[in-house]
UniProtKB/TrEMBL annotation:
It comes from the Bacteria. This is Outer membrane beta-barrel protein. Residues 1-20 form the signal peptide. The lineage of its organism: Bacteria, Pseudomonadati, Bacteroidota, Cytophagia, Cytophagales. Keywords: Cell outer membrane, Membrane, Signal.
Amino acid sequence: MKKLLLLTFLMIGHASSAQKFTLKGRVLDNTDAALPSATVLLLQPKDSSLVSFGATDTQGVFELKNVSRAEYLFKISFLGFDTYFKKIAPPTDSDMVDLGTIKLKPASNELKEVLVEGEKSPVVIKKDTIEYNAGSFKTQPNAAAEELLKKLPGVEMDAEGNFTVKGEKVQRVTVDGKEFFGKDPKMATKNLPADAIDKVQVFDKKSDQAMFSGIDDGKREKTINLQLKEEKRNSAFGNVMAGVGTNERYQAKGSLNRFSKGKQLSFLGMANNVNSQGFGFDEYMNFSGGGATQMGGGRIMITTNNTNGVPLNFGGRMNGMMDTQAAGLNFNNQFTKKTEANGSYFFNNLDQNISRDVTRETFSPRGSFLSDENTHQETSNLNHRGNFSLDQKIDSLNSLKLTGNFGYTETVQNERGQSQTFSPEGLLQNKGIRNATATGNVFNLNSNLLYRHRFGKPGRYFSANIQFSLNQNDSKGQLDAVNEFLNRPSNILKQESEQDNNAQTYGLTLSYTEPLGNRMYLETNYSFRQDLNQVDREVFDLESEQRELNMALSNKYNSDFLYHKAGLNYKVNREKYNLTVGSSLQQSKLEGEMLLLDTDVKRSFQNVLPTAQFNYDFANNRRMNFNYETNVQEPTIRQLQPIVDNSNPLNLYVGNENLRPAYMHNWRLNYSSFDAGTLLSFFGMITLNYTTNAITNAQSFDENFVRTTQPVNVDDNTMVSAFGNFSFPIKKYNSRFTLGTNLREQHTVNVQNDVENDINIRSATGNIRYSYRLKEDFEFSLRADLTAQRTKSEQAEIANQLFFNKTYAGEVNYRFLKTFNFNTTFDYLVYNNPDSDFNQSIPLWNMSISKQLLKNNTGELKLAAINLLDRSMGVNQTANSLYVERETLNSLGQYFMLSFTYTINKHLNPMEARSGGMRIFR
C-alpha cells in the first residue's frame, strides 16, 4: 500500500512537471540597490487569479520554478515603489525565461492608466510581522478560523487546538487588533468563520510599557491578529448550526457579529453532548478556582496525577462524557481618540461523567508494587466569567489603563470508587470502597491599574502599577468509606466537612527609567505584595447521628505573606539588538497562625535574583533570543499546613510547615527564521532549568501500603531540553513537509519512606507532517508523533522503565461537483510498555459528506459518522520519579449526526470564490 501511494504521487508529480519552465530575474531600485523581500506574483491574464508566487532574496534575485507553459501576467510589488507589470509568454526552445534586471520606480501620486483594486499577495513581510492573505488558502465551506490558520506556512495546530508559530506557542489571538473574549485564543479560532477573514498577521506583541515608552524591554507575546474583510467590518455576519444524531446526540451553536467603525459586538452560543468545546480549558480552569480546589471529601473535576513527571500522551481527546451549554458576549468600543473600552462575559454549564480505571506501579527499594483504582465521577459545573479593560490617554505624556477579570463557579460532584493494593509478592494488602459528595462555590476577582508618565526628555519614563485580587472558596463534603487491611482491623469512616477559604492580595510596582545617552537606559524598580489567607476547615465524625469535631483533620489557619523586591537594570537598545542585565533583592516574610493547634509560624527569606536578556534581529526575518532569569517558588498554603487530608483514606495528604522556598535558574536560547520566498521556516530552542531546595512530593507507606504524600525539599532538580521544528514545501509535488523533535533529560530526587533516590528521566519525541494539495479540490495530509521515555534509578532494587507512545493520523478533503464536500480522518493511537508487556491501540475513524444549498451557498447540509469503529475508550500513560501509571477512561462511542448550517450575510462577499485574485480595469 505504501509503495502504491508513493508511485501515485511520483506519477502525479511527473505529469505535472512535464512541459514546464522556470522564470527568474533580479529586482533593483532606481539607485541600483537590491530590493530584498519584494513580492513576485504570476497571475492568469483572464481573471488575475494566482498561479505562483515568491519573494526576492538578499541580492534581489527571484526564481519561480515548474511554471506550466502558458501566457501569464507577471507582477512585482514593494512598499514605496510603483507596482511592476509585464506579460510573460512561454519559451519556445528552452525551459528558462530570464527577465534580467528589473528596476522599480519610486511611488508616484500621479493618476495611472491602470487602476488595480484588491491586490492580494499570499505572504507579505512587514518588518517583524508576517502577513498572510486569507484568500490564498482555501478552506472548506463554513469552516472555523482554526481551519484557515493550520493551512498557513509556519503555523502548526496540535490535537487540542493550540497553535504554535515557528515552534512558539501562540498566547493571544485578536480581531482587528482588539481582544476577543479575553485572552483565550480558542474563542476566536474556534468560533469566527474563516470566510470573514481578509488577512492573518503573525507577530511578537511588545508589552504595554514598551509600546508607551518606546524602549524595548524584550518582553514578547506570540500573537495572531485576524483582520476582517472590509465588508464584514460594517455589517452583521455569522452562522448558526443545529444537528441531531443517533444515541440521543445533539449539537447546536451560533455566532453573530456586528462590527462598525470603532465598535465590535459579538455573541456566541453553543449546546451539545458530543464533547465539543468552543473555549480553552486553561482559561476555564483559571476562572474555576484552578485545579487545586479542595472540597471536603471530593476530588476536583479534572485531575492530572503527574507530580514531578512527564505526561507521555493525553490522546488529544476530551475523555469522559460531557454535556455543555454556553453563551457569551464580547464588545469593543472606541468612544474617543483617547478613550477605549472592551470587555466580555461568558457563561457555561458543564456536566461531566467519567469512569476511570487506574493501574499504578510504584517504585520502592522493597520492590515495585501494584495498586488498582476504579472510580465513577459525576460533576456539574456552572461557571460565569468576564474580562474588562479601560484605556484612557490623559494627554500625550500620561495614560491610565484599568484591566481585570472575574469569575464565579458553582460545583456539585459525586464520586464512587474502590481500590486495592498488592505487595511486591502479589499479596492483597488493603482494599477500600468510598462514596464522596461535594458542593462548593468559588468567586475570584483580579484587577490592575497602570499609570504611565513620559517626561519631556526622551527615554525618561515612570510607571506605577496597583494590583488587587480576591478569592473566596466555600465548600461542603461528605465521605463514606470502608477500608480493609491485611494486618489490622477494618475501619469505617462517615464524615462531613465544611471549608471556607478567603484570600486577598495587594500589590504595588514602581518603575523609573533614566536615559544615559546613545540609546542606553538605567531602570530602577520596586515592588511590594501582601497575600492574606484565612482557612477554616472543620471535619466532623458522624456517630449515632451526632456530629463530633475531628481535631486531627480540622484546621483554622491565618497567614500573611509579605514581599519586598528592589531591582536595578541596565538596558541597551539598538536597531538590530537590545540587551538587559540587572538584579533584584527580594525579601519575603511569612507569619502564620494555626488556631486549633495554638501554633505560630514565622519565616523570613532573602534572595538575590539576577536577570539577563539579549535579542538580536538578523536580516530577512531571522531572530535570536537569549533569556536568563531567576525566581523563587514559595510554598502554597496547603503545602504548609500540617493537617491530614483523608479525601481518599488509602492515599493521604499532609502539609509540611518546615518547607523552604525553591530557588530556580532558567536559561533559554532560541533561534527562528522564515523565508517568504521559499516558505522555509525553522525554529530551535534550548532550555536549562536548575532548582535548588526543589519542592517535591515525598511518599511513605505503612505496613498495609497506605500511602501518605507530603511536600519536602530536596537538594536540586535539573532539566535540559532541546526543541527543533523545520518546515518546507516541495512545489513540484504540491506538497509540504514539517519535521520536529523534542529531546529532554531530567535529573530529580524522589523520597520514599525517608530514603532519597536519584532518578534520571530521558525522553525523545519526533513528529512528521506531510500535506498534498491538488488545485483547490483535493487535500491529503499525514501525521506521525512518536514518543519514547526511559526512567533510570540509582537503586538497583528499582527497575528501569521504558515507554513508547505513538500517534498516526491522516486526513482527506475532496470537493466535487462544485457543491459537495467529502472529509475523512483516521487516528491510530498506540501505547506500549515493553517492561510490563502492556500494549494498547485505539483506532479512531470519522467521515462526513456535505452539500451546499440555497442562494450564494448560504446553507450546508452535512451527514457525519463519528468513531466508525466504535472505540469508546481513552488511554493515558504517565510516568515520574515515583511511579508509572496507566489510566483508561470512558469516551464517546459511535454515532451519526445530520446537521444544517446557515451563514448569515454571506452575500456580502460575492467575490469570495475568486480566492487571492485581483481585478484590473483599463
